[in-house]
Design goal:
alpha+beta; Aminopeptidase; 2 domains; seven-stranded mixed beta sheet; four-stranded antiparallel beta sheet; about 30% helix; about 30% strand; elongated
C-alpha cells in the first residue's frame, strides 16, 4: 500500500478547511493554547485525566511530530481546531494503521464552545479526508455516559457493533466501508451512483412525484442530488439509497439523511416512489426498513419532514410509528410538519 501510505502521511501534515473551521497540524507552538483548552477539569470527566501543563503538552507534541518509532508503520495525525480568527478551540486526532486501513479517532472541544456543532463539523472533514486517502474503517472509543460524543459518532456514521465490545470502560463505535443497508421483503437497497442518472432524473423530474416541492428538478439537479448522496455515504455512512424490486425494477429512492430543523440536526427518513408503483405500500415498507436500520445503529430519534397537504406521506409516517411533533418552517421558509418517533 505504498501509495496509500504516502497519501496518509501527507494528510497528517496537511491543513483541512470547513465552512466555519480551520484544522491545522498540531505543533509544539500550540502547547500553550491547548493547555488553556484543556484547563477545565470538566473536559476530562470521561477520561479521568488531569489538565496537562504546557510543558507536558510540549513533550507530547514533540513525540507526535516525530511519529512512532520503527518498526511501527502507524501514522499519527493531530490537528488544532481553529475559529476564523485563529482561536484554537480544541483538537482532533487520527491514529492510522495502514495495513488494515483503519483509523482510530478522537476529538476534544473547549467546553466554552461545545454545543455549536464544531466537533461534528471538524470530524466530518477529517473522516472524509481519511476515506479519500484510502481508509476503509473508522473507530472511536466513547464513554457510555458521554452523550455528546456518542451523537458525534452517530453523525459520522459510526455504530456500536453487535455483540457489544466495551474496551477499558468505553464503547467501541465503528464505521466500515461495507456499511449495512436496510433490509425489506419486497425491496432491495443499494447506493446510488452516476449510472443511476437516467432513473433519478426521471423520478425527480416527474411533476407528480414533485407535487409538494417548488418544482420538478432538472437533469443537472438530479446529478447534483446523486452527488449529494455520494457525499453523504462518504461522510455519514448514510444517505438516500436506490430502491428496486428483487428482479431489478426501479422503484425510487429512500434513506436516512441529516437535516437542520429549527437549528438542530435531526436524522430524517425520506422517500420518493415512481407514480406507477405508488399505492402498493413500497414507501411504507422502505421507510420501515430505514427506521429499523436507524434503531440498530443506535440512533434515538427519527423524523420525517412533510408538506401539510401531503396526506399520503403523513399516512406512511403514521404507519411506521411517527406522529405529528410540531409544525414549523423549512430552511426555505415553506410550512412543513415534523413527524417524529423515539427509537
Amino acid at each position: 500500500m505504498p501509495d496509500d501510505d504516502a497519501a496518509l502521511r501527507g494528510l497528517a501534515h496537511s491543513p483541512l478547511q470547513t465552512h466555519r473551521l480551520s484544522l491545522t497540524p498540531l505543533t509544539v507552538d500550540d502547547a500553550a493554547a491547548m493547555a488553556e483548552v484543556l484547563a477545565d477539569p470538566s473536559i476530562h470527566r470521561y477520561t479521568f485525566d488531569s489538565p496537562p501543563s504546557v510543558e507536558e503538552l510540549q513533550r507530547r507534541y514533540r513525540a507526535q511530530e516525530a511519529g512512532p518509532p520503527p518498526p511501527s508503520t502507524a501514522v499519527w495525525g493531530n490537528w488544532a481546531v481553529r475559529l476564523p480568527d485563529g482561536t484554537a478551540i480544541g483538537f482532533v486526532q487520527a491514529t492510522v494503521d495502514p495495513p488494515t486501513s483503519t483509523a482510530t479517532l478522537a476529538w476534544v472541544i473547549d467546553t466554552r464552545h461545545q454545543g455549536s456543532g464544531y466537533a461534528t463539523e471538524a470530524m466530518r472533514a477529517l473522516s472524509s479526508a481519511l476515506r479519500g486517502a484510502g481508509i476503509r474503517r473508522l473507530v472511536a472509543f466513547v464513554h457510555p455516559r458521554n452523550v455528546a460524543s456518542r451523537r458525534v459518532a452517530q453523525k459520522l456514521g459510526l455504530a456500536m457493533p453487535a455483540p457489544h465490545r466495551p474496551f477499558d470502560g468505553e464503547d467501541e463505535w465503528v464505521w466500515d466501508e461495507a456499511a449495512p443497508l436496510p433490509m425489506a421483503d419486497r425491496l432491495v437497497f443499494r447506493r446510488m451512483g452516476h449510472a443511476d442518472l437516467d432513473a433519478m432524473a426521471g423520478l425527480l423530474g416527474d411533476p407528480e412525484v414533485m407535487t409538494y416541492y417548488p418544482r420538478p428538478r432538472t437533469r443537472d439537479e438530479a446529478a447534483e442530488w446523486i452527488e449529494w448522496n455520494v457525499r453523504n455515504y462518504a461522510r455519514d455512512g448514510l444517505g438516500l439509497w436506490i430502491i428496486s424490486t428483487p428482479d431489478g425494477e426501479f422503484v425510487g429512492d429512500c434513506g436516512l439523511t441529516w437535516q437542520l430543523i429549527d437549528g438542530v440536526e435531526e436524522l430524517e427518513v425520506g422517500y420518493h416512489v415512481i407514480p406507477r408503483l405508488q399505492g402498493r405500500g413500497f414507501a411504507t415498507e422502505a421507510a420501515a426498513a430505514c427506521r429499523d436500520l436507524a434503531r440498530s445503529l443506535g440512533h434515538r430519534r427519527l423524523v420525517s419532514i412533510i408538506h401539510p397537504e401531503n396526506v399520503a406521506s403523513q399516512r406512511v409516517a403514521e404507519k411506521n410509528g411517527l406522529w405529528l411533533d410540531r409544525e414549523t418552517l423549512s430552511r426555505s421558509g415553506v410550512p412543513v410538519r415534523i413527524y417524529a418517533v423515539d427509537l
